[in-house]
Each structure stands twice: as C-alpha cells, then as structure tokens.
Amino acid sequence: MKSLSAGQPEENKGTAKPSRAFLLKLELRSHPQLLCVIRGALEPLMEMLGFSAENSREIIRAVDESVSNIMRHAYHGRLDQPIEVYCNRLERRTSAETEQGVEILLFDCGPAVDPTKLEARPLDEVRPGGLGLHIIRASMDSVEYKRAGHLNRLRLVKFTGSKKCCPESKE
Amino acid sequence: MNISSRQVDKATILDVSGNIDMSNSPAVRKALLHEIREGRAARVLVNLTAVAYIDSSGVASLIEGLKASRELGSRLVLFGLSNSAREVLKISRLLKLFEVYDDEQQAIAS
Questions:
Q1: Distance between CA atoms of residues A104 and A22, nearest Å
Q2: Which of A55, B15, B29, B56 could bridge to B61 as Cys pair (CB 3.0-4.6 Å)?
C-alpha cells in the first residue's frame, strides 16, 4: 500500500505527520475485517503505557469507532483505501506527579470533512446510527479534527488519570 | 463471529460469539430481525456471554431489534454482557432501555 505521507506536499509534512518518534505505526486498508487487528494491536500497548483495563477499553473503542467512521464516511465503503494510525507516548505534569498519556493520530485521504458534521447527535432520541462520534468524545480527553494538505487528521488524546467515561455509572 | 439460535421453554435464544463490529453487525441485525419478525418469538434472548466487544454498529443492530420487538409486542432480552458491552450501552445511554440480565437462567426466568 502506498504510504499516505508519500504523496503529501512537502510544506504539510511537518505539520500533519508526527515529527517525533512514535511508539507504534499501523498502515492498513479500509477493510472492516481489519478492525480487529487494530484492537488487537492496541490492547497490549495501552497496558504497556500504564492504562487501567477500563481506560484501555475506552481508548480502543474510540480508535475502533474512528477508523470505522473513516471506512464508512471518508471512503464510502471502499475496501482498499489507506489508513494510518500512529501512537505516541505523552506526559503531563499535575501538581503531585507526572501523568502518562497517549496520543493517537489517524490519517486518511478521503474528502475533507465538514466540521458541522462532527457534532455528535443528541442521545434523547432512540434510534440506530450516529452513536460513533458520541462514543469517541465520551471515551477520550481530547478529540481534534484537522485537514492537513490532502489528508484528514484525527487526534485523540487520553491520560491515565482520566475518569471521563460512563457518566451513568450509577446504573 | 458465529450466531445460532435455540429454543428453551417458550423463548428463542440467540447465541452470539466473537466480536461485533461493522464487519459483521449486518449479520447480527439480520439474525435478530429474522427471529423477531419471521420466527414470531414471544421472547428473544440474546446471549452475549461470548461477545467481548460491541461497537456502535452492533448497538444499532440491537436497537433495531428492540424497536421491531416493541412493534410486534414481543420482548428482546440481553444477557451475559461483558464489561465492554455494558460500557458502550452506558455511554450511549441505552442500558436502561434494554432488559438486561446477568445470565441465561435469570433471563429465562424473567
């Protein structure tokens, strides 16, 4: 598969692609049967980075939903289009300690996304579909979309101390 | 992923194994709607004991099944949810919408 970075304009390379060493890079085609491969690769990595089992599931869920959205919306179900996933270690200082985190960057070369369509739908209406964005936002500390040259870039960040998910935990 | 069905008492149990994501959720949807609409089961119990992961497309299939069962006056019951499956229903604020039981015995007795 041709790397997404190969066709990227030089002026965009510094801003779009990770400029530092990454822990893991996955290049895959937009075939839904590869989703399990991504999940399988991320699970031990999140454990290595010190995430709890619950936080690890949240991250894997967010990445899985993000890649599914790329396959469905950016590539409209075409099975042979390129997707790249980069994982980097992050650190942030809190008052008491240094907290570990992960930054996950996803790249595709589908059409630019209309930012108004990146809002999750209200959950008060019970109907199938449209849950993916809500799940991504609920699972991560930060979700940012950016058009970088001819690429779509989604940046997901989560830290080990995050307790963002599952607001209805009293159920 | 595998799906099979069996009858216990007057309930139809749909046994699902493997992970449910966009690669196979249409098959889950098809099997579920078949049991509800064609099988006309009064109760369809979905056994998720062997399902470690469900994505939003899998959740959407369950919602479609729930809507179809309500339209026909039957019941859709879930049991054996993994932590991941329970979490995704919570995040989607759908957990309270479904009848959920820990295991098959409880689901059948419900």
A1: 10
A2: B29
Burial track A77-111 (b if 16+ CB lie within 10 A, e otherwise): eeeebbbbbbbbbeeeeeeeeeeebbbbbbbbbbe
Give bridge partners of residue A25 from the DSSP assignment. Answer: A86
Regarding an ipTM greater than 0.95, the answer is no
Task: Tell me, rounded to whole angstroms, the distance of Cα A164 from its chain centroid.
Answer: 16
What is the residue-averaged pLDDT of chain A? Answer: 84
pTM summary value: 0.87
**Closest in B84, B92, B95 to A131, CB measured:** B92
Q: Which of residues 124-163 of A touch B (CB under 8 A)?
A: 126-129, 131-132, 134-135, 138-139
Closest CA to A66 of A111, A110, A106, A119: A106
What tokens appear for B61 in the block? 């299939």
CB B41 within 8 A of CB B74: yes
B25 lies within 8 A of chain A by CB: no
- Contact present, B51 and B20 (Cβ < 8 Å): yes
CA–CA separation, A170 and A91 (whole Å):
31
Q: Which of A20-24, A54-58, A148-152 has the lowest mean pLDDT?
A: A20-24
